[in-house]
Amino acid sequence: MEDLVRGGLAAAGSPFTDGFVSGTTWRGEIAFYPGAYPLRAVVRARLGGGDSLEGLPGHETVEAFLDHTSESAALQPWLERLPAALRGVQPLLDGGPEGRRWLVRDRAGQALPLVGGGHWALLSMSGGRPVDLAAEWDGEGLIPLVATSVVYSGIFGAVLASIRAVNTRMVVYDTSVADLTEDLQDPVDFLFGTQLGGGNDTPRALAYCQSIITRPAERVMVLVTDCCEGGLSEAMPERAARIVDSGVTMVYLLALGDDGAPTYDRRQAAAIQKQDLDLWAARNEIVTARGS
After folding, report:
1. Between the CA of residue 2 and those of 22, 25, 27, 157, what are the distances in Å?
2. Domain boundary among 110, 144, 178
3. pTM score, two decimals?
4. What are the pLDDT digits (tens) for 187-226?
C-alpha cells in the first residue's frame, strides 16, 4: 500500500474510469503493467483519501530531473515520453540570440525548453513566480499539462461577473466537475486555484449545468471548448441538444492557441453546426449555423 498522487494523465480526450479528482491524494493499491520501466498501472483497491495536495512531488532542480531521464532511458531506451514533475520553476519567454523561445528555469538558474502549446496560459497562471509544473518530457523539451481554456474562460467569466445586471455562473471540468462561481470575484485566485488534469467529460459537465439552470428561456450557456472529445464525441452534441430543447440559448466558444488563433477539432465542430448551434471563434473566424 502507498500514498498516491492523482496527477491527471490520460489518453487525449479520454475520461478517467475511476473518477479521481486532480490535485488530490489517496491511499490504495495499484498494479503496474510489466516493463523494464513501468509507467502504466491499474487501480486494484482504494482505501481512502481525497485530501488536497499541498505541493507537487517532483524534482527540485533541472539537474536532478535530467539525471532521472538518463536513468529512465538506460532502463527503457524506447520511451517516447516521460512524465515530469518539477518544483519551483519559473516559466519565461527568452529573447536571446537564438530567437524567442519558451523556457522554465529552476532556482539554480538552469533551464529547460518548453514545446507544444499553452505557454501563455502557464505564464498567466504563474504570475511570473515559481510554480510546480507537471509535464511530459519528449527528449528535447517539456510539454506542460496546462488547460489554456481555464485562462480563457476565467477572463471571459470575470468580465461577465463584473456586470451587475448579469447573473454569471462558472463551471470548470476535466473528468470531474467543479462550480467555481464564488472565485470569479477574484480572477487571480481563480486562475491560480484551478487544477485540471488530462482528459475531459463534457457530457457530465453539461448535465451538471443543466441541473442548476432555472428559467431556461432566459439563460445563455457559453461552452469554451476545443471540441476534442475522443470517445465522447457523440455524447457531447446529444447532451447539448437536450439543453437547447429546454429553451436555453447555447453558444460554443472555440478555444484559442498561443498565437490567439482558434484551435479545435474541425470535424467535431462541423457536427455541432449541423445541430443548429452557434459556434464562435476569435480573429474573425466566425462559423455559425444560426444568425446571431
Report:
1. 18, 10, 6, 39
2. 144
3. 0.53
4. 656 655 555 555 578 888 899 999 999 899 999 888 887 7
